[in-house]
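Subject: Sanity check before I submit

Could someone independently write out the structure tokens for this chain? I want to compare against mine line by line before I put it in a report. The sequence has 113 residues.
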Amino acid sequence: MRSGLSEEEVLKRQRKFISNLFTNMNIEKYFSWYYTPMALPFTDHLTPEVVIYDCMDELSAFKFAPPQLTILEQELFKKADIVFTGGNSIYEYKKNQHHNIHSFPSSIDKHHF
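---
Independent answer below. Compare away.
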């Protein structure tokens, strides 16, 4: 995108792009799978059948994390039908924030490797 656009204008364009994509592709039934709460401002107008929050990291602890991240995460917890966490430590930290939250630690197919 061009530089110099306000955050409001960027979000407006992202929302319009997604709406047009769904219209052009005739998408009517879908799930929304979030890896970051920062996607909410340009997708909160959608009406998915299921909302999944895949919380693999504590994003608010990252250097330069935006201040609104924690607020948006609380909104996403309210919207989500199910939440997965990237391991037991994140699960323990967030387990009381959602009624349907599950630890999903990293793993491998040992026999494959």
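---
OP: Matches mine. For the report I'm noting this point. Helices lie at 7-24, 69-79, 88-94.
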